[in-house]
Amino acid sequence: MAVSLSRVRVLLTLVLLAVNVVDKAQSIRLPDRISVPARELPNSQTLKTAVFALGSFWRSEAVFGCLNGVVRTTVGYAGGSKSNPEYRSLGNHAESVQVEYDPRLINFRQLLEVFWSSHDSRQVFGQGPDVGNQYRSIIFSNGNEESRLAAISKEREQARSKSGIVTTQIQQRGTFYPAEPEHQKFELKRNPFLLQLIGNLPEEELEGSSLASKLNGYAAGLCPENVQKQIDAKINEIVRKGWPILREV
Ligand code: MHO
After folding, report:
1. What's the 117 CA to ligand 1 centre distance in angstroms?
2. Residue 244 C-alpha to ligand 1 middle, in angstroms?
3. Atom of ligand 1 nearest to the CA of 134
4. By alpha-carbon position, which residue is closest to atom 6 of ligand 1?
5. Of 212, 220, 224, 221, residue with least CA distance to 185
6. How far, in Å, is the centroid of ligand 1 from the Cα of 76?
7. pLDDT (tens digit, 9 = 90+) per residue, 135-180?
8. Fold of 44-241
9. What predicted TM-score, i.e. pTM, was given to this entire model?
């Protein structure tokens, strides 16, 4: 049983990797061996990290998790001064998402575009239905170049429409405090079927999993449209074919 479950997990991981790899291809072909070209497996030294605040971090994580080149997402608290914040006592921090990405596949400028198009930066003291300082809009920059890119993008956003002032702050990045486990991959956890499809990963694996980040975006319906459709198709195929059943041993 244990063997067959882990096989299913490996297979599903490959299936979703294949979805990624064949982004623009007509048909989905399963890789015929259990290894991925080295370039698909960035080591942590080649990865970069960005942090954004744009409202409820459940949604923020889902917005970034599905992008091609994003390897891992984590929700947490940033932008305030309180040490070791918690959800019920986060002090002056903002709900944030940390995005680990492969700079060969996506860059900070593109992440900024997603940031601006995924929330209302003109809303004061809240985001959507959520009211409060913890939902404010912030771009955390890591160095002068990122501050410069952030400032240019903010000016562009302001110029796009004169109605309302863009409230987004640009701050030098400080400590990012990861949030409690129950807030990680929240949208995916709302969907027991998807959780089961990836093999009911234990919490630590779920938090580090690229597949889980992607499916978290999918569960929220926030993947780019083509990715959303590809995952839909893959899941429908799995559902149609059914699960393999062990008949005898
Ligand atoms: N509107 C959300 C806010 C959650 S959040 C992570 C809710 O359902 O409570 O701050």
Report:
1. 20
2. 38
3. 10
4. 56
5. 212
6. 13
7. 999 999 999 999 999 999 999 999 999 899 999 999 999 999 999 9
8. Peptide Methionine Sulfoxide Reductase; Chain A (3.30.1060)
9. 0.82
